[in-house]
Amino acid sequence: MSEPKHAVGIDLGTTHCAVASVEIATSDRDTLVLSGLGIPQVVAPGEVETRPLLPSFLYLPHPSELPPAALTLPWPGHPTDLVVGEAARALGTKVALRLVSSAKSWLCQGSIDRRAPLLPLHTAEDVQKLSPLAATVEYLNHMRNAWDHDHPDAPLAQQLLSIGVPASFDPAARELTAEAARLAGLDQAVLIEEPQAALYSWLGVNGGAWREQVKVGDVILVVDVGGGTSDFSLINVRERDGDLELERIAVGEHILLGGDNMDLALAFYLKSELEANGQKLDNAQLATLTQAARAAKERLLNLPDEQAAPVVLPGRGSKLVGGALKTELKRSDLERVLLEGFFPIVEAAARPASRPRGALTQIGLPYAQDPAITRHLAAFLGRQAGALGNNQQSFVRPTAVLYNGGVFKSELLRERIRGVLDAWLSGAGAEPVRVLPGADLEAAVARGAAYYGWVRSGNGIRIRGGTAMAYYVGIESAMPAVPGLPPQLTALCIAPFGMEEGTAAAMPPAEFGLVVGEPVRFHFFGSSTRREDAAGSVLEHWSDNELTELQDIEVTLAADQQRPGDVVSVQLQAAVTEVGTLQLAAVNIASGLRWKVELDTRDATAG
Amino acid sequence: MQDPGFFTRFMLAFALFFRVLFDAAFAGRALLLRSGSDPDADHHDHQPQPAPAPPAPPQLHEAPAEAALQLLGLLQREGRLMDFLQEDMSAYTDAQVGAAARVVHDQCKRALDSHLQLERIRNEEEGSRVSVPKGFSPSEIRLLGNVSGEPPFSGALTHAGWRVARIELPKLSDGHDVHIIAPAEVEL
């Protein structure tokens, strides 16, 4: 591999992807040469355009649906049976059953087999379905080809590459993202948490001047509301050897809730308005309603003096005027749906409501049950009360806030978050938060990821942090089973909180007898709050808040070196790879043999 | 006129032989006669002309239709422009037309903005006094009203003009038919 010329960052978003890069040789701290990559994509059958964003949609056309060569791209070897980007999004609004969307949200669903072809979810028999993993590979392939087309002398596979993932992605979802990169021929890719990328982008924008904007003891809250997920992180500013140091001390839970849900909520509100007036919507108009709702929302958010924005759905067919439906979005309704629905003013002690799911829930994305982002934020700060080692407070107190995500282009929403935080802080006798200026709301993840690659090559400041969770396996006790009671479970810590990339945890002494050739499953838990447990610690009791049960992990001792049916004694060891993924192995000390423990497993009887 | 006899024709051929040989203009007319067209269609002067330089053909060229059709297709796709222009407006109230026009305007403008960079030719406010220097470009500035005298001119800016500074249309795949502004849609 020749010496990399660029540090490249990829934002693999739920609704949009972007690519940015830093030229390594010509950049220094104060003159960072950061540029975004234009991504050529099919925008309509037969038409190719270069755009800054690649919509994260994939469309599987019927063999006779499009003219020949309609999916031609500027590079050789592009797929002819599928299309990604703008054309996919546009075609999908009219033929939903051939559209793959939100692959990223599916990638973090442990309830499904993410390598199994299941998207589009509701489709026709003759549609060749894709797995969430395969769809992710297609997006990465497209971006790789776009880069190589633009940089024939510096192919992407030979550059430093960082890919953003939600900070709240579990180990299996991170591993699947890394696997997607490998399948796209980008083996060298490392992962970067998106809120950290947003902060890196801010550091890059500010050059050396960031040191004047924060001080020792600051706790920076990154509020990242993307198209499909909301992600929180806390970053502490410390002093080390006379210089400032940044450490990511906590990340939030995975919240499947983003800007798209807000637009959808507005669309449903407008639909009910139209129907109350006796106007009937057909399916195509329903599809354009979300778009119209978004446009009306943006208009009201950008023009604070207007009290209402017109919403017109043009008629279907070629009768544009005749079939048009008309209503308007009033500011009071926008604020009610958006502010009170997603960003209500709540107490610091508020927690998200969770309603039990109906017995007949259809398989689908488990969107957050409580849409109030402020309640999720309160829960996050409350859960992390001890993140700074202070157990006296009921919630951790941020001193500064950095926004990320296109949702926060709206000053109204930024101010609402700030107002809610300030109310919590003043209630606790603390100073109001400072808003870190100069955030690049939409391009920050790709840019920050590129900056991170540059930092990894030995420049600038690195945010420390390591894994944001400690990990445990569940061990059923040897006590005699009590009828009607589940066996007592204890949790054995195998990976402590804050493991850095490229390190391995100490091996807990606990041994397990595994039968060769038979898959064995373990309960698997994560904790975002237990910072003190070392590998080998055993928990007898814990509260629901402390440990979150993740997807089971599974290991099969292959029969090639052992006789099937033999029982082999193993210990479990955790390591964090340079890529940033968790790796678990079952090790037989006597023979030195190791077996990989799979993070991404699925109960054969489920779903 | 009666056809001439053989002798007359022989003498004529002899005379013409030398005239064709030494009179270029005559030879040119003879050539046209031989190819079947009427040499007098352009001018009815039967007298031989002193060889004039052939007039340069007028320099008009046809604009390629491809980009125009593509732009139309784009405005239809993004903003339903063709549907709007082709619809019979007489059946609708101003409010109906206005509501639809808002959509067309909004989306066509968005489509234009993302494909071409528009500039004003003059940056002054419309209605303000401006001066037009000597050597101004008549394609950029059109003089109206009392057009006389010599530049520099002074006058009121009635229209600030538009110029496309940059246009970038999507690239087309081979075989893409730009004549299809909007495909017919059939719902199955």
Description:
The complex is a heterodimer of chains A (about 600) and B (about 190). Chain A is of the alpha+beta class and about 600 residues long. Chain A has 4 domains: about 5-190, Nucleotidyltransferase, domain 5 (2-Layer Sandwich), CATH 3.30.420.40; about 210-255 and about 350-355 and about 365-450, Nucleotidyltransferase, domain 5 (2-Layer Sandwich); about 260-340, Actin, Chain A, domain 4; about 470-595, no CATH class. Helix content of chain A is about 25%, strand content about 25%. In chain A, the strands form 7 sheets. In chain A, strands 1, 2, 3, 6, 10 and 11 form a 6-stranded mixed beta sheet that branches. Chain A has a 6-stranded mixed beta sheet with strand order 18-17-12-13-14-19, with helices on both faces. In chain A, a hairpin with a 2-residue loop joins strand 4 (about 40-45) and strand 5. By secondary structure, chain B is α+β, with helices and mostly antiparallel strands. Among the domains of chain B are: about 1-40, no CATH class; about 65-125 and about 150-165, no CATH class. Chain B has 5 helices and 5 strands, in the order H-H-H-H-H-E-E-E-E-E. In chain B, helix 1 (about 5-20) crosses helix 2 (about 25-35) and helix 3 packs across helix 5 (about 95-115). Chain B is flat and about 90 Å long. Classes of the chains: A alpha+beta (about 600), B alpha+beta (about 190). At the A-B interface, strand 5 of A face helix 4, helix 5 and strand 5 of B. Strand 5 of chain A pairs antiparallel with strand 5 of chain B.
